[in-house]
Specification:
Layout (H helix, E strand, L loop, with lengths): L1 E5 L8 E5 L10 E10 L1 H8 L12 E2 L3 E9 L11 E7 L5 E9 L6 H4 L3 H14 L6 E5 L4 H12 L3 E6 L4 H6 L3 E4 L4 H8 L4 E4 L6 H8 L5 E3 L11 E2 L6 H13 L7 E6 L3 H10 L5 E5 L1
Parallel strand pairs: 8-9, 8-11, 9-10, 11-12, 12-13, 14-15
Antiparallel strand pairs: 1-2, 1-4, 3-5, 3-7, 3-15, 5-6, 6-7
Helix pairs in contact: 3-4, 3-8
C-alpha cells in the first residue's frame, strides 16, 4: 500500500510517499480502507518535533490521526461494526491507503468521506476546550483564529449551547464567521478595541498561536479564563495549553448527534492527494483556512 512517512524532523519536504506493509487490526481496533484523512496542525507539529511529550514516536514514522473509510478488518472483541460499514474516527498513520482506528463511529447519513475525515480530532478538541475554559450558557466566548476546523466546530457547538461567540479571522472570512452566528471582527492593529466594542468577554480561546495571549488575558481579566491549543508559550502568562485529547469515542458520538440534528457542518476548504501531503502541510501552517483540509485517497 501507499503511505506517507517522514524519516527525520523538519519542514514539509521531509514527507515521503512510500510503499509499506498493510497494518492489521488488533484487539479493540478496526482497519479501514481509507477514503480520506484529516490534516491537523498536530500532524505538522509532530513532523517538526515540537510536541513529542504527548506524541512520542520512533523514526521513520507515519503521519495523521483522523480518517474516514470502509471497514475491511475487525479486531478481536469489537462488536457492533462489520466489514463494509462506512466509518470515521481516530487512529495512527492515517495518511495511507489502509489505517487502523482505535476510536470510530458510523458515518451519519448524507456525510461524504471527505467531510467526515475532518471531524474526529476537531470535534474532540472543540468539546474539550469549551469544557476546560468553563464558559456557560448566556456568557460570551472570544475565539482567536475562528475560521479553521476547530474554530468552526467551537462556534457551532457554542451556538447550540446558548453561548455567544466573538470570532477573529482574516477579512476574507468575516462573512463565514457571521454565517455561523458569531460576532466577527478582523485581527491586526486595533483588534482588542474592536472586540471590546462587541461586548464583554467572559472567556477566550487561542486557536491560531498568533502571539495574542497577553491581550486575551487582558480582555477576560483572568488567565484561568483563557485556553490555548496553539501557543506553547501560553503557560508563561498563566494560561493553560491544552494538548492532550479526552474521550474520542464520546466526542464522535456527540459529533454524530450534532451532525444528524443539522447543528454542525464543517466545510472542506481544500482536498489533496497523498502525493500532495507536503503542500497540505504548507497550506495548513500558513493558516487562513475556512473549515478543513483533507487528503483524498
Amino acid at each position: 500500500m501507499k503511505k506517507v512517512i517522514f524519516a527525520e524532523f523538519g519542514g514539509p519536504d521531509v514527507l515521503q510517499l512510500v510503499d509499506a506493509e498493510e497494518p492489521n487490526a488488533g484487539p479493540g481496533q478496526v482497519r479501514i480502507a481509507v477514503r480520506a484523512a484529516g490534516v491537523n496542525p498536530v500532524d505538522w507539529r509532530v513532523r517538526e518535533g515540537q510536541i513529542l511529550g504527548a506524541h512520542p514516536i520512533e523514526l521513520p514514522a507515519g503521519v495523521g490521526q483522523d480518517a474516514s473509510g470502509v471497514v475491511d478488518e475487525v479486531g478481536e472483541g469489537v462488536e457492533g461494526i462489520e466489514v463494509g460499514d462506512p466509518v470515521f474516527g481516530e487512529g495512527v498513520s492515517t495518511y495511507a491507503e489502509f489505517a487502523v482506528l482505535s476510536a470510530w463511529a458510523r458515518m451519519p447519513e448524507g456525510l461524504t468521506f471527505e467531510e467526515a475525515a475532518g471531524y474526529p480530532s476537531v470535534v474532540e478538541t472543540a468539546l474539550r476546550i469549551i469544557r476546560e475554559v468553563g464558559v456557560r450558557p448566556g456568557q460570551t466566548l472570544l475565539v482567536s483564529g475562528a475560521s479553521g476546523g476547530v474554530g468552526s466546530a467551537v462556534l457551532q457547538i457554542a451556538r447550540d449551547r446558548g453561548i455567544t461567540v466573538i470570532g477573529t479571522a482574516g477579512a476574507a472570512n468575516q462573512d463565514y464567521l457571521r454565517s455561523l452566528s458569531a460576532h466577527a471582527t478582523t485581527y491586526g492593529q486595533g483588534w482588542v478595541e474592536r472586540v471590546r466594542q462587541l461586548g464583554r468577554v467572559d472567556a477566550a480561546l487561542d486557536l491560531a498561536g498568533s502571539g495574542v495571549i497577553r491581550e486575551l488575558v487582558e480582555l477576560t481579566g483572568d488567565p484561568r479564563k483563557v485556553i490555548s491549543i496553539a501557543d506553547l508559550g501560553a503557560p508563561e502568562f498563566g494560561v493553560r495549553f491544552s494538548g492532550v485529547a479526552g474521550s474520542v469515542p464520546q466526542a464522535l458520538a456527540e459529533a454524530v448527534d450534532l451532525i444528524s440534528r443539522g447543528k454542525l457542518h464543517i466545510p472542506v476548504d481544500k482536498a489533496y492527494t497523498l502525493a500532495e501531503a507536503a503542500a497540505a502541510h504548507s497550506d495548513s501552517q500558513a493558516g487562513h483556512t475556512r473549515g478543513r483540509r483533507v487528503l483524498v485517497v
